[in-house]
Each structure stands twice: as structure tokens, then as C-alpha cells.
């Protein structure tokens, strides 16, 4: 169990819904709609786009973009979608790069916050291959304290898998967590925490850094 994240998640979702009523910036509105679903909200939208990207071009045209937003049940009218698309289609090619889109959609984070998130990632990524898997967790995360392990419901691997699923998108849990997914998750958490100092203390405590 990640200390504090469920509570932060709820606070952040409530805050995002509140801010949504006030903001007119289309990109900010889309960001807040994602965050209103919790820390994995932005990542979830990324997954929807990835599934639609049949030709693996990692780009979307306007039609795909709108379909993705609809599939993800984002409340956005066509004019607003066009405006957002224009902002992201910097070179006017009629397509947008969705990695760039997700990075821009992610709530901005200070260098200090990114740094501590990466420290946590590196600590978990025992094998150093840029992906956190069950293998990596064996060395750093103790499953024995988990209530479901203690009462015999889950094996150690099931505890690890549930832990990884926290950082994964709700629709496509593959038991692997990339740097990008980890960063996206914590960008969500970060959005609910006002000061760098508090965010860094929370991360240090959570990951014993």
C-alpha cells in the first residue's frame, strides 16, 4: 500500500472537479477532467490513444483524437477539441504526437519533484532496465506485511502485482511500469500537493529514500 496516495488521490480529484468549474483554458480543462479520475487519469487517456494507434505511428489525426476523447468519456465539444488539437499540432501537419501530448497534459512539475520521483523509480528498478517488474520488487518490497498475504488470500506475487497495478492504467495492466507511467502517476499525486518540500518529504518517507 502506498502511504497517502489514496487520500491524496481523492483530494486531488475533488480539487480538479472544483477547478474545472472555473477554468476556461481548453488544455487545462482537459487536464482537470483527467485528474478528476485520479492520478492514473492522464495515463488512462494515453492508453486509449495507444490502442487506437493501429499503424503504430504514435501520432493521431483529428478524427482519431476526437474518437479517443469520446471513448474516454471526456466532456468536450467539437470546437474545444479543435482548439486543443491546434495547440498540440505545432507544425500544422494535421497530426499530433501523442507522447508530446501526454507530457504537455501532465501537470507541470518542478525539477526537484522530478528528481525525487526518479530516485524512487531507480530504487525500485533493481535490474536497471528502465521498467519495474515483479522481479524488481522481490528485492525491495516486503509482501509479508500485506494483510491479504497474512490471511492467505494472496501469494507474494499477487501482492507485487497489485502494487504494480497501482501505477498502471486501469484498462491495460501488464505488470510492467515504465518511467513514463511512474512519472505520469506521480504528476497526478503532485498536483494535489502544494509545496515541493512536502512532496519530497512524502516521497522520502514512502520509499525510504
Automatic annotation (TrEMBL):
Residues 40-75, 76-111, 112-147 form the EF-hand domain. It holds the Pfam family EF-hand_7. The gene is Capsl. Coiled coil: none annotated. It comes from Cepphus grylle. Keywords: Calcium, Metal-binding, Repeat. The keyword Acyltransferase does not apply. GO terms for molecular function: calcium ion binding. This is CAPSL protein. SMART domains: EFh. PANTHER family: CALCYPHOSIN, CALCYPHOSINE LIKE. PROSITE patterns: EF_HAND_1 (PS00018), EF_HAND_2 (PS50222).
Amino acid at each position: 500500500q502506498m502511504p497517502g496516495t489514496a487520500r491524496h488521490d481523492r483530494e486531488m480529484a475533488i480539487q480538479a472537479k472544483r477547478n474545472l468549474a472555473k477554468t476556461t483554458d481548453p488544455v487545462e480543462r482537459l487536464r482537470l477532467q483527467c485528474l478528476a479520475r485520479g492520478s492514473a487519469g492522464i495515463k488512462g487517456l494515453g492508453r486509449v490513444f495507444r490502442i487506437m494507434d493501429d499503424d503504430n505511428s504514435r501520432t493521431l489525426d483529428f478524427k482519431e483524437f476526437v474518437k479517443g476523447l469520446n471513448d474516454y468519456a471526456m466532456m468536450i465539444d467539437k470546437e474545444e477539441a479543435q482548439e486543443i488539437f491546434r495547440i498540440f499540432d505545432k507544425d500544422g501537419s494535421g497530426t499530433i504526437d501523442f507522447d508530446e501530448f501526454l507530457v504537455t497534459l501532465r501537470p507541470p512539475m518542478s525539477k526537484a519533484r522530478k528528481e525525487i520521483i526518479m530516485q524512487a523509480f531507480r530504487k525500485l528498478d533493481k535490474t536497471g532496465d528502465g521498467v519495474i517488474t515483479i522481479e524488481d520488487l522481490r528485492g525491495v518490497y516486503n509482501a509479508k506485511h500485506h494483510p491479504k498475504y497474512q490471511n492467505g488470500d494472496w501469494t507474494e506475487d499477487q501482492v507485487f502485482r497489485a502494487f504494480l497495478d497501482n501505477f498502471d492504467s486501469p484498462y491495460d495492466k501488464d505488470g510492467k511500469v515504465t518511467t513514463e507511467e511512474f512519472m505520469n502517476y506521480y504528476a497526478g499525486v503532485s498536483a494535489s500537493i502544494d509545496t515541493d518540500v512536502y512532496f519530497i518529504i512524502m516521497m522520502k518517507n514512502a520509499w525510504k529514500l
